[in-house]
Amino acid sequence: MPDGWQWDRTLFRGSAAYYDQGRLPYAPGFADRLADTLGLDRRGRLLDVGCGPGTVTLALAGHFAAVVGVDPDPDMLAEARRRARRIGVDNVRWVEARAEDLPADLGVFRAVLFAQSFHWTDRDRVAATVLDMLVPGGAFVHMSDHKEPPSRPVPLPHPAPPFERIRALVRDYLGEVRRAGQGVLVNGTPGREDLVLARAGFEGFQRLIVPAGEVVERGADDVVAWVFSRSDSAPHLFGDRRDEFEHDLRGVLRDASPDGVFAERLPDTEIMVWRKPSVV
């Protein structure tokens, strides 16, 4: 868990409605790549912790007999249920809970996945609990955008979103220290998952980079949705200045691209896998 920060229910309050439009997708083919790595055969169960609106949960659901998506935000789960109904996925159970509430009588799993969510948890405690929830040889999966930029980036056909100016505007409204729920992240979010998982007793580390690289067009509404989908600029943080902030944000976007069209390159997806020992 981030230093000096306490979780509270407002962390992503109001963000669920913006996720689908605002967040860039993971690399195409990530689900099949992970399925090949884990040897999935539509048997066993998956637990997705911090599942949000079900982005990864639903992409992987077809590779398991049953899936459980866990998230503490009821709006995220409501959006996940709507998505599941829309695309006809019926083997997922959605549970409102924190990672620290596990095992929560959820049973045992072939894989437990954290997609850009593990850093919000009491990691040592959660890792130890997850170890007990996995079948022997089961997988702890950590997924995120790959942070390293391409070595030879190709010019974009439209301006990129003005991320630095957006961050500066957020700071003007919310302060210099990154907000997170009712608290702040003085030192950012923690890394070195490898040390945490080793302490818990996991082994057999594998690292996968699933390439993306496609260029996608983004409109001003998409960029606004991205801003409001983030924990550090969630809608509730702006209080009664939310509309004022959005007005100023759209002004920044008009300055950067008068026709309101932007371009972004999809980041590669990084997947890290650790195994529970087959004999404990």
Question: What do you see in this structure?
Answer:
One of its GO terms (molecular function) is methyltransferase activity. InterPro entries: Diverse_substrate_MTase, Methyltransf_25, SAM-dependent_MTases_sf. By secondary structure, this protein is an alpha/beta fold. It has one domain (16-275): Vaccinia Virus protein VP39 (Rossmann fold, 3-Layer(aba) Sandwich), CATH 3.40.50. The protein contains nine helices and eleven strands. A seven-stranded mixed sheet has the order 3-2-1-4-5-11-8, with helices on both faces. Strands 6-7 form a two-stranded antiparallel sheet. Strand 6 (178-180) and strand 7 form a beta hairpin. The longest helix is centred in the last third of the chain and has 15 residues, at 242-256. It starts with 15 loop residues before the first helix and ends in a 5-residue tail after the last strand. The model has no long low-confidence stretch (mean pLDDT 94).
Strand content: 15-25%
Work out the helix count.
9
CATH homology superfamily: Vaccinia Virus protein VP39
- Give start-end ranges of low-pLDDT stretches: none
Looking at the structure, the CATH topology is Rossmann fold
Tell me the helix content.
25-40%
End-to-end Cα distance, whole Å, is 27 Å
- What string gives the helices and strands in order? HHEHEHEEHEHEEHEEHHEE
Q: In what order do the strands lie side by side in the largest sheet?
A: 3-2-1-4-5-11-8
Determine the mean pLDDT.
94
**CA radius of gyration:** 19 Å
Largest sheet: 7 strands, mixed
Look at the structure and give the CATH class.
Alpha Beta
Which CATH architecture? 3-Layer(aba) Sandwich
Content-based structural category: alpha/beta
Give the overall shape: globular
Task: Give the count of structural domains.
Answer: 1
Strand tally:
11
